[in-house]
Design goal:
Length: about 575
Amino acid sequence: MWPFRVDPPFREFGIKALEDEYDFIVVGGGTAGCVLARRLSENGQHTVLLVEQGDAADSWKHKTPLTSNHFSSPDPVHSNKFESVSDSKFADARPSQTWSLVNGVGLGGTTRINGGQYTPACPAEFDAWAEEGRPGWAFADMKPYFLKAEKLVCGSQVTDPESPENFNYPCTKVANQAAKDLGFPAVSDLLDPTLPTTCCYKMKYTLSADGPRLSSFRAYLPKDYVNSTANLHICTEAIVSKIGFSVGKGKDGEEGLRAESVEIHAPKGDGDITRVVKARREIVLACGALGSPKVLLLSGIGPQEHLKDMGINVIRHTPGVGANLHDHVFVTNIYNCPLPDSFARLAKQPYLFIAELLKYLIFGTGALLWTIVEMEIFGTASLFGSDGKLKAGAELKPELRPDFAIISVPVAAPNVPGVDYSKGLFAQTIALMKPESRGTLRLRSTNPADTPLCEMNYLSAPADYAVLRTAIRVSAHLCKTMQASGYPLEVAAIPEDLDDDEKLDVFIRRGLQTEYHYASTCRIANEEDALPGVLDASLRVHGVAGLRIADASVLPGSPAVHPQAVVYAVAEKCADMMLRGV
Ligand SMILES: Cc1cc2nc3c(=O)[nH]c(=O)nc-3n(C[C@H](O)[C@H](O)[C@H](O)COP(=O)(O)OP(=O)(O)OC[C@H]3O[C@@H](n4cnc5c(N)ncnc54)[C@H](O)[C@@H]3O)c2cc1C
């Protein structure tokens, strides 16, 4: 990849140049929004407007994996970072009881800045969604959408878990071997419903064959497509502040509510302008799990008590909007390893960094194109004993849904007591994949540009502690196995006593981090569900015609894998349903 290639200009529309009406309006040009804009426009039969709050920037910095990744180079223009509501139940363990929440801004949304790890799906999870009353969401229904998206966002990547050449960092290569030795079968296709879900996975990435990041923007809306598609208008640096509704008789003759327009506010560019644009057919929200419920609330759809408190006219009392907020969370066990084996060598040995930089500038290859995470194990806690080992006779069935995941990384967070930063670093991030705890999202103010109030309520369910305790023990056992194989791993910051649940719980509370995988704030479920839903199985907002949602907010629960692949598949399915009118 030649990093400084100059692409042709991208065809964008200022707010003044927009039509008064489009067939479809897509709100939010992130992960799901770019999929929807592409699929709804590509048959040329419908006019489509995509409105995105951020910009369309796509420089070498945004394409290069290392410089676009939030973890190695945070980008304040393309990420929205704000603090959650403080949670006093963590007061015994940490000085700050809030979490910094982050989501991407600009075309491509969070796929502009995310870790790029692509873990397609847990097939059994979708079968469960369908069995719980969501027709059309069984794995057999969803698989074609996963494959369609994967072709665009992962290119032709092949990951062979058995091939040691697939690892750039020796420490993760050893971890991969230790996982296999401990009975985690190496799985290269997470979409194969016959394979065990407690497994060891060599990561795929949202990168193109020659190295650059494939955000949803770069994969689905490349410039030549956008510039040659007259029926697609993309308006950036414009925020949708609310949806407009009409009340009248629908096609079925029933009196009801219909979403008919969006109010768009563009604070920059041609001046501070607000316009109302109508949708002839449908509006689809794709503003993310923290953005779509906010737009519904600002539009008067949500829990009526909250809307009244905010002085917003109640259009429809829908208690599920902003309820059920949850997230994958993790804690980290840190070790020291030999410096040459870890990513830290680039920081500690400047001549190496300069060599890698030159390699990148001259040939477009090298470490700046590598992603940091190389392998992950997934597991179901009930299969493991208190020693972190698989129980004798444990059956690794494909029907089981993993509730924890452990990622091996050749880096560690800074300033952790006990860690020797002059040496190489190796860490295991130990994540809760099926949390039972639920939080809420509410409006902070009626200003559409304001961030929402998010009460994360992490670890309010005791079951979440139990899974994390088991996963920490599995991680420690894995690292002991690496040591036993002769690998010089030194303990740096792990729990003092793995057998003491109370001490483990303090370790968990102290080190708990968000994985930024927010979900379910507008879930697909009945309104009467114990965790009340917002959408029917066609992703239509209950009680409102002409309005769907397709993004991470719709997920009935956190997926057992990283979410972006699932969001892509949801968006593919939504576009398909919209085009078929179902
Ligand atoms: C730092 C980080 C790392 C991550 N790493 C991974 C990973 O490695 N693998 C993985 O699978 N997942 C990862 N995730 C999670 C994953 O990227 C997200 O779950 C997914 O991309 C969310 O997609 P979305 O379509 O729901 O929302 P987004 O992609 O966030 O899109 C929402 C878009 O809507 C726009 N918007 C919001 N409100 C409005 C409005 N009112 N008007 C107009 N536009 C609006 C926003 O600007 C944004 O562009 C990571 C997340 C973060 C934050």
